[in-house]
Amino acid sequence: MGKCVLAVDDSKTMRDMVSFTLRGAGYTVVEADNGVTALKALQAAAKVDVIITDVNMPEMDGITLVRKIRAQPQHAGTPVLILTTESDQSKKDEGRSAGATGWIVKPFSPDKLLQIVAKVCP
Amino acid sequence: MELKEGNGRLEIELPTVVDLPVAAELRDILLDALARDSAADVVLKAASVERLSTAAVQVVLSASGGFKGAARRFEVETPSAAVTETFTQLGLASDLQKLV
Amino acid sequence: MADDQSYDLTRFKATYFEECAELLAAAEETLTRLQEGGASADDLNAVFRCVHSIKGGGGAFAFEDLVHFAHVFETSMDALRSGRAELTPHVADILVRGNDVLGDFVRAAQEETALPADHGADVKAQLASILTGGTPAPAPKPAAAAPPAPAPAKTGFATWTIRLTPAPGLLKTGNDPLLMVRELAGLGDMDVAVDASRLPALAEMDALAAYLAWTFTLVTDKGRAAIEEVFEFVAGDSADVVIEQLGDAVLAEEGDGWGLFAPMPPAADAVAAPVQAAAAPTAGAHPPGAKPAGGEAGAGGIHTSSIRVDLDRVDRLVNMVGELVITQAMLGQQASGFSIESHPELVQGLQELSHHTRELQESVMAIRAQPVKALFSRAPRLVRDLSTKLGKQARLVMSGEGTEVDKTVIEQLSDPLTHLIRNSLDHGIESPEERMANGKPAEGTIHLGAEHRSGRVIIQVSDDGKGIDRKRVLEKAIEKGLVDRGAQMTDEQIDQMIFAPGFSTAAQVSDVSGRGVGMDVVRRNIQDVGGRVVVQSTPGQGSRFILSLPLTLAVMDGMLVAVGNERYVLPLTNIVESLRPTAQQARTLVNVGDVLTLRGDYIRLIRLYDLFGIKNAITDSTRGLVVVVETEGGDRIGLLVDELLGQQQVVIKSLDSNYRPVEGISAATILGDGRVALILDVGALRIMGERLNRAQVEAAAAAQAAE
């Protein structure tokens, strides 16, 4: 069964780039545009293997999303990657203490994205 | 996943994916099996496992110590390739051998 | 997977620019609110996110100037939202300018044009100064692009010892040592030794905590960086990682050890002794490198609440549905000879088809509908900027922003609406002194509202200013030869004169309303999208411009009329009534021409056959039918036709894009029988009729003089 990635970003451009790259590598991609819709998508999905989320989003930001995901027992170990910028060391730390698995630094190359997803994908 | 009595043994059939939440469930079931006032063997049926998390490996290792201490037999039956590979990669190939 | 070079970014650019446009508009709207002093933390966050998203995408496409500017902007927004800088009216103004400049950069990137190197440098400096509380400061260093990945040190093979001691919480971050072991093994030849000494008894165990620790011996030609990268996400907080090269021991990752904040799991009790002494390296640990994930498609499908569709696709759909409506009408006509008794299923089926077609059409039209909010969002800034410029005080009140209307209508209305608001501020609202002298509050009010009313959208722009100066309008109209001196005109008719071509009320062309664009252009623009505009005015109390617009441009309810062998469609919204006049009602007045007397009023009669040169038409008005129609200006005229063929919904086909503009015709349509019928433009017919009449009257007068 192909691995399924939930891509969460309020920027359609970013979602497109993540989706296109991952789909090209055989992943199934589900998209959501903020934390609230992401939680809904997570609930509706048969299975999600990896979650990639932006940090700054309306409705619910990425850090809160990570906490909410970790609060669900079935997602205690689901890898969650946060999309952040090079300068955002504080976001990496914040993400990590919220329970994020790792991070992807924007802007990223398709290869880097695939490498990191493969790194954490169980 | 549940504890079943059959052939005079307590059997647990592992699902295809034994990730973190399943490892927690497995720990509770094994604890239940360990607590039973019984001398019955406990068997983990592992033929269909495709993914085994490190958390699950820890549970199996800890349980094996527990059953050994209680002088009961604990066995991993027909481990799938994924199970063997995981134990080997984590440096626990010999530990698995003792359980098969 | 493709490498970087062949990875085609252009496919995402269209989405990016589309998104930028939305983000810039959203930021502008919010910034306007900030300027008005209604700042909330949410607003600051919203603007921060807009700028952040624009920067993020820009970075992916390597729009460097854009990213540099956005970064400065973002940094300032970040300081504001976190309270490190204060939002003053001055700062709000800077932010608005910042948004404008950011828009310049986006446009330049989109059009692939180069801006001057110092473009927006002043605004950038001002944005940066927000951080220092107003003292201009050098712009912060722009965000660097991702540094090139350090090249693996090609120092030949080396032997490394790596000790991995996870913190208990490691597994709960979604990391699994198994994946790290696999990744590490992919770097070279590896032996694994596990340390299970920390593993507690089952009863004491938290299944989600990490207890095992490992020591790896790795022979690889990849350097330290490659090994460090394996533990990138866990080293420090989630695990203690020690990397040592043989003979050259260096502590690689020395963060706060997990032991500082997480107590060691309690020691095993006496009942169980689960300690697995397994310090000896186990043989045969050479797994293959991590397998790339993926392969077959799978997993459940999820539906997000909205999707983005190219407008072309929607238009194609609208067109196809239009064709379907025509086909359905044609089938209905063909089958009109069948009775429900003789062909019950056919007739019933056609009725259902008609019903479903109509529903389908409405659904498709709804796709194109958008709230007028997008149109209104520019108004607050316009009012503020203009009132400052004109030395007037005005506030804007908006209502009905959620009212939906066709996207094209929204796009086309932008200019006319801007002009109407300008007009209200320039000519309507008086100076504060004048207002107070007249007992009005110094601050004038402009109301911009939208609502749905009987299948159309009504947009109103009203003000509580001085109203239209009818005396001056009339003088001007006479001066310009638009009306004859001594002509009897009602107040309403005078008011509508401001829409006449070439009419401009401003004594001097002002900087604001001027620019050579008059109200006639406003009306033309509104008519282009099938709308009408009228003005109501009360001297001393204000004016109200009422725009009536169709919900959609693609379909219209029309009345099919016959003139000779030709068929025309009259928009149903224009029709007042139709009648067969008596000989007393239809008269020809000297110096005026054909008129119809209707309940004491004279209505100009226009003979369509005359206007369009149609033969075999009924020329005697008492034998044909007169359709009384009303133009957007409120004028009534009578159109002489042979007969009414029935009311029907028609799909509008533009003549401009399919043929060329024709006077008196607004568009064309295809009838159920496949014939083309032209849709009449009532306003234009009135003007054509008057011209024709004048020519005929003059010809008659000339003939009389010659006798």
UniProtKB/TrEMBL annotation, chain A:
Annotated positions of the 4-aspartylphosphate modification: D54
Top-level taxon of the source organism: Bacteria
Domain annotation Response regulatory: ranges: 4-121
Matches recorded under Pfam families: Response_reg (PF00072)
Matches recorded under InterPro entries: Bact_response_regulator (IPR050595), CheY-like_superfamily (IPR011006), Sig_transdc_resp-reg_receiver (IPR001789)
PROSITE patterns: RESPONSE_REGULATORY
Keyword set includes Lipid biosynthesis: no
Keyword presence, Iron: no
Keyword set, alphabetical order: Phosphoprotein
Gene3D superfamilies per record: 3.40.50.2300
Biological processes, Gene Ontology terms: phosphorelay signal transduction system
PANTHER family named in the record: CHEMOTAXIS TWO-COMPONENT RESPONSE REGULATOR, STRESS RESPONSE REGULATOR PROTEIN 1
Name recorded for this polypeptide: Response regulator
Automatic annotation (TrEMBL), chain C:
Catalytic activity: ATP + protein L-histidine = ADP + protein N-phospho-L-histidine
Top enzyme category: transferase
Pfam family, one: HATPase_c
Region Disordered: start-end pairs: 279-299
Histidine kinase domain span: 345-553
Segments forming domain HPt: 5-109
Molecular-function GO terms, alphabetical: ATP binding; phosphorelay sensor kinase activity
GO cellular component: cytoplasm
SMART domains linked to this entry: CheW (SM00260), H-kinase_dim (SM01231), HATPase_c (SM00387), HPT (SM00073)
Domain CheW-like residues, every copy: 555-691
Keywords: ATP-binding, Chemotaxis, Kinase, Nucleotide-binding, Phosphoprotein, Transferase, Two-component regulatory system
PROSITE patterns: CHEW (PS50851), HIS_KIN (PS50109), HPT (PS50894)
Annotated positions of the Phosphohistidine modification: H52
Low complexity compositional bias, start-end: 279-294
Enzyme Commission number(s): 2.7.13.3
Functional note: Involved in the transmission of sensory signals from the chemoreceptors to the flagellar motors. CheA is autophosphorylated; it can transfer its phosphate group to either CheB or CheY.
Listed name of the protein: Chemotaxis protein CheA
Lineage: Bacteria, Pseudomonadati, Pseudomonadota, Alphaproteobacteria, Rhodospirillales
